[in-house]
C-alpha cells in the first residue's frame, strides 16, 4: 500500500477492540509521511460517530501517528494556547480506506499550562472486561503511557518547541490560508 503524499486528503478511522467502527474523520490533510509516521491536519473536519452523529472540528488540529508507538497525538491549536489529546491506541496502519487504529479508551490530556490528566480509566476498565483485553495489551498500554509522559516531559515529537509552528505553517502554505 502506498502512503499518501503531502497535500493529499485521507480518512482516519478508529475502531474498538471488538472490531466495531468507533469514529471517522473525513478529509485530513497529509502534511508528512515516512515509512513509520504520519502527520496531518484537521481543520473544520467532518467527524462521524459510530451512532451516526456528525459534527465538525472547531479548531485546527495536527494529528501524529507512528507505527511503533501505542498512542497517537492530536495537537489542538486554540486561541488560549495549545493543548494535546493523546489517545492510547494501537499503532496505525494505512490501506485504501485511509489510516486506521484501535482505540483503547485511555487518553492523556495536556492543557496549555502543562497540566497532564489521565482520562477514561473507568471506560478502559469496563471495555477491558467486556471485550477481554489480553494481559499483553494492558502491559503494552501501561508501558506506552510511560513513554508518552516521557515525551511530554522532555518536549519530544509533537511536544517539541517548534512542532506546531512548523506543521501548522506548512498546512497554511498548502491551503493558501493566512
Task: List its salient traits.
alpha+beta; seven-stranded mixed barrel
Number of helices: 3
Task: Catalogue the unreliable spans.
Answer: none
Oligomer: single chain
Q: What is the distance, rounded to the nearest whole angstrom, between the alpha carbons of the first and last residues?
A: 34 Å
Q: Beta-sheet strand percentage?
A: 35-45%
Number of strands: 11
Order of strands, main sheet, comes to: 1-2-3-6-7-8-10
Biggest sheet, in brief? 7 strands, mixed, barrel
Fraction in helix: 10-25%
Shape category: globular
Structural class: alpha+beta
Order of helices and strands: EEEEEEEEEEEHHH
Q: Radius of gyration over alpha carbons?
A: 16 Å
Nearest-integer average pLDDT: 96
InterPro entries: DUF402, FomD-like_sf, Ntdp-like, SA1684
Organism: Alkalibacterium indicireducens
Keywords: Hydrolase, Magnesium, Metal-binding
Domain DUF402: 18-156
Fold and architecture overview:
It comes from Alkalibacterium indicireducens. It is a single chain. This protein is α+β, with helices and mostly antiparallel strands and 178 residues long. It contains 3 helices and 11 strands, in the order βββββββββββααα. It has helices spanning 121-130, 135-154, 163-175, and strands spanning 9-15, 21-33, 37-42, 46-49, 54-56, 61-66, 71-78, 81-89, 93-95, 98-110, 116-119. A 7-stranded mixed β-barrel has the order 1-2-3-6-7-8-10. The longest helix is centred in the last third of the chain and has 20 residues, at 135-154. The termini are far apart. The model has no long low-confidence stretch (mean pLDDT 96).
